[in-house]
């Protein structure tokens, strides 16, 4: 859309994060509680434990970077900072 081109003309992709629900044993669960710390409602089930995942895709909808396996309690900023420290360039 040409209306938005001036804002995105030098953009090569998009970064976003999401929480993926998981199950784990009771003694390992605490760090995986999501950032709300309460049950989140999903269409399919209730969940409070998750992995925090950050992905980058290009405008062809191809994934160009994935950072997964983070505990649900990890902030988005922590996940991004780790990626930047590992050589990911924004």
Automatic annotation (TrEMBL):
Superkingdom of source: Eukaryota
Metal-binding found in the keyword field: yes
Gene Ontology molecular function: hydrolase activity; metal ion binding; nuclease activity
UniProt xrefs under InterPro entries: HARBI1-like, HARBI1_dom
Keywords: Hydrolase, Metal-binding, Nuclease, Nucleus
Compartment annotation: Nucleus
Any GO CC annotation of this UniProt entry: nucleus
Names of the cofactor(s): a divalent metal cation
Pfam families: DDE_Tnp_4
Ranges for domain DDE Tnp4: 15-82
Family in the record: Belongs to the HARBI1 family.
The protein's name in its UniProt record: DDE Tnp4 domain-containing protein
Organism: Aegilops tauschii subsp. strangulata
